[in-house]
Amino acid sequence: MRNLKASFATAVALYLVSTLVPASAEPLKNIVLVHGAWVDASGWKPVYEILTKDGFNVTMVQEPETSFPEDVVAAKRVLDLQDGPTLLVGHSYGGSIITEAGVHPKVAGLVYVAAHAPDVGEDEGTLGKKTPSILAKTNGAILKTPDAYTYLKLSDFLKLFAPDLPREQAEFAAKSQVMAAASVFTTPLTAAAWKTKPSWGIVAGSDQIINPDLERWYYARAKSHTIEIKGASHSVYASHPREVAAVIKDAAEKARE
Fold first, then answer.
1. Mind listing the pLDDT tens digit for each residue in 8-49?
2. Domain ranges of the chain
3. pTM for the full predicted model
4. End-to-end CA distance of the chain
5. 142 Cβ neighbours under 8 A, 6+ residues apart
6. 29-254 — its CATH code?
7. What is the pLDDT of residues 89-140, one digit of tens each?
């Protein structure tokens, strides 16, 4: 009788565990990549190729860079098309976009790649002035059109944005810049997804566009799982795609735990 009672108790316990405790979540398969200012989504190609080869469904956002709200809407359109939980990845200014767009219900986690991560009411332009980068200290590097669209002077793009890329690749990126409305850098955020969703952060150790100390501060505040890639420039997603892809894959495995 005692053995029968023990067996019955064990069966009840196993039943409760199976019904009340969810099975281990499957790794995320949907990844959305968001580029930064002055470039477009083509820079993600090396990371895209690694991730798709490993079985991920990867989509890239092409932002118009005409206003911060319009760039956020562009990201949300792509998120709407995903077929399930999604990892949202942003580089540079793209970090501000994923911070705002990341409240989307399909977003399970965030990855910041040498990126900004402001809080509600903050903007990256103001935060960047408090922790200035080499770019901010380089007079004449940021040029502006009469209608207030910004771009980097060719020589400064090569020297500051992409110094660790092959010359031909860096020149192509510099000459195909997407001009960004100056207002995208000074629009305060109305949401901060890193407050409620897990995040990962990559510090580009030799970043001259965003001060690496600012990146460290952002990620520490967000309690992001942080990795630093020593010697990497702001173009870390293109110059160190394997390391960046490895962080994204790790985040995809852990975002739903």
1. 444 434 443 333 434 446 679 999 999 999 999 999 999 999
2. 29-254
3. 0.90
4. 41
5. 135, 150, 151, 152, 153
6. 3.40.50.1820
7. 999 999 999 999 999 999 999 999 999 999 999 999 999 999 999 999 999 9
